[in-house]
Amino acid sequence: MANEVAPPPVTAVEQNGVERIPDHERTAGPLDLFRLSFGGANTFSTAVLGAFPILFGLSFWQGLAATALGLTAGALVLCPMAVFGPANGTNNAVSSSAHLGVHGRIVGSFLSLLTAVTFFAISVWSSGDALVGTASRVLHVPETPVAFAVAYAVFAGLVLVVCVYGFRFMLLVNKIAVVAATTLFVLGAFAFGGSFDPSYAGTLDAGDPSAFWPSFIGAALIVLANPVSFGAFLGDWSRYIPASTPRPRVVAAALFAQLATIVPFGFGLATATVIATAAPQYLAAEAPNYVGGLLAVAPGWYFAPLCLIALIGGMSTGTTALYGTGLDFSSVFPRFSRVQATALVGAAAIALIFAGRFGLNLVQSISTFATLIVTCTAPWMVVMTLGYLTRRGWYDPDALQVFNRRQRGGRYWFDHGWNWRGMSAWLLSAATALMFVNSPGQFVGPFGHLAGGVDIGLPLSLVLAAVVYLALLRIFPEPRGVFGPDGPRWVPAADTPVPPIVDPADVVVGGTAVSTPD
């Protein structure tokens, strides 16, 4: 078309923040979304999660069933979050203004910040540990704190550089990562094929179903949490997809990107059975060490591929996590550009990585913290998805930017900038779900033992958010102005006037916005 322009080179630093991306600059497509989503999850840390069914005592086939169940459910929960980027040309935190209010959107920004820093730390630690472990066995480099510190610093620095350059550079990294990491994982079939036994029976008592179900459900929920953790970030990448792109194609890209992660999940599951058979001490319940066990049972020629998986996959996870936080931080604090905000958040995250690893020993605790964050993010995603459906996918992109421009009013102003319907549904669901979390030795809610030791916080948050939010929308209808020309779906609307959008220097006098002098 006449107004289309060629995408900028990958070496050009991205200038766009969370303001609406102009139509002529949206040159990405659903395949790019697939690459970014799959690349961010096709990593070594996902393989570690794939080992959990074996850690829980399941057989290989039971673990595969739990993985397939959790992955499919998580992908279905996640994929609707991809539609907000093309619809509004901005990230999901800004889009959430439509459902939580102009000020309520800070919930999404806060969840995004916590999720990004946490998963950035996990990716740096897991990849750095794998690199040092491989170097120790191949090059006989001693596993000292200095070696780990150098690995973390180099790795985190590379991630930060990619994020500063922005979307196009990150897309290039993930284009390479999708093919390279998948090939290296598949190569593992040749490395471990001779010692892998699909008839591995697990360690549970086959005659005791009371031991099976908590392990099966717990393993499925751990897998389910991985796709859900991407909920706050999909809009960061899909905002470069043209608004005219059919929504089913965008949703399908996000869905199949997560289903494709059966590759790293399957790698972790299969290799965990090999470790459990050949070196079971590495999977001891009190201190499991999957990475160490993997290096212990891997043939020597596969050390180099493992090192590349750690490097490539970790770069993908780190960049997809950190990029969105810098982007959103610049909207919450507009004095910072996207580049400045990314550098600031990245530096703080790197400091946390070193303090948590060498000073405070937070490696295990931050994994539990990730579980708690995902539990709180899930109901926010439900509110967003149901809000999209009740609005029939109609939004006012200009009104979504009120917070970023430090204005007041508009369709999404609601009650002083807060939509208490969405906020209440999120807060009640998240708080209730946290009380049912059960992470032994780390965090156990007051009702964490009611489900036989199974952590049901995440599924409870999903169900409760859906029920409460729809009930509030029916009992307390939203203003008709937030719905499009076709009106609401499933819920009523109220004839409540929409306040005009006014600048900070304007005051309302006699119902009219009047500009005041500086």
From TrEMBL:
<feature type="transmembrane region" description="Helical">
    <location>
        <begin position="456"/>
        <end position="476"/>
    </location>
</feature>
<keyword id="KW-0812">Transmembrane</keyword>
<feature type="transmembrane region" description="Helical">
    <location>
        <begin position="216"/>
        <end position="238"/>
    </location>
</feature>
<feature type="transmembrane region" description="Helical">
    <location>
        <begin position="366"/>
        <end position="389"/>
    </location>
</feature>
<feature type="transmembrane region" description="Helical">
    <location>
        <begin position="146"/>
        <end position="167"/>
    </location>
</feature>
<protein>
    <submittedName>
        <fullName>Cytosine permease</fullName>
    </submittedName>
</protein>
<feature type="transmembrane region" description="Helical">
    <location>
        <begin position="250"/>
        <end position="283"/>
    </location>
</feature>
<feature type="transmembrane region" description="Helical">
    <location>
        <begin position="418"/>
        <end position="436"/>
    </location>
</feature>
<feature type="transmembrane region" description="Helical">
    <location>
        <begin position="64"/>
        <end position="85"/>
    </location>
</feature>
<dbReference type="Pfam" id="PF02133">
    <property type="entry name" value="Transp_cyt_pur"/>
</dbReference>
<feature type="transmembrane region" description="Helical">
    <location>
        <begin position="303"/>
        <end position="327"/>
    </location>
</feature>
<keyword id="KW-0813">Transport</keyword>
<comment type="similarity">
    <text>Belongs to the purine-cytosine permease (2.A.39) family.</text>
</comment>
<keyword id="KW-1133">Transmembrane helix</keyword>
<feature type="transmembrane region" description="Helical">
    <location>
        <begin position="176"/>
        <end position="196"/>
    </location>
</feature>
<dbReference type="InterPro" id="IPR001248">
    <property type="entry name" value="Pur-cyt_permease"/>
</dbReference>
<feature type="transmembrane region" description="Helical">
    <location>
        <begin position="36"/>
        <end position="58"/>
    </location>
</feature>
<feature type="transmembrane region" description="Helical">
    <location>
        <begin position="106"/>
        <end position="126"/>
    </location>
</feature>
<dbReference type="InterPro" id="IPR026030">
    <property type="entry name" value="Pur-cyt_permease_Fcy2/21/22"/>
</dbReference>
<keyword id="KW-0472">Membrane</keyword>
<feature type="transmembrane region" description="Helical">
    <location>
        <begin position="339"/>
        <end position="360"/>
    </location>
</feature>
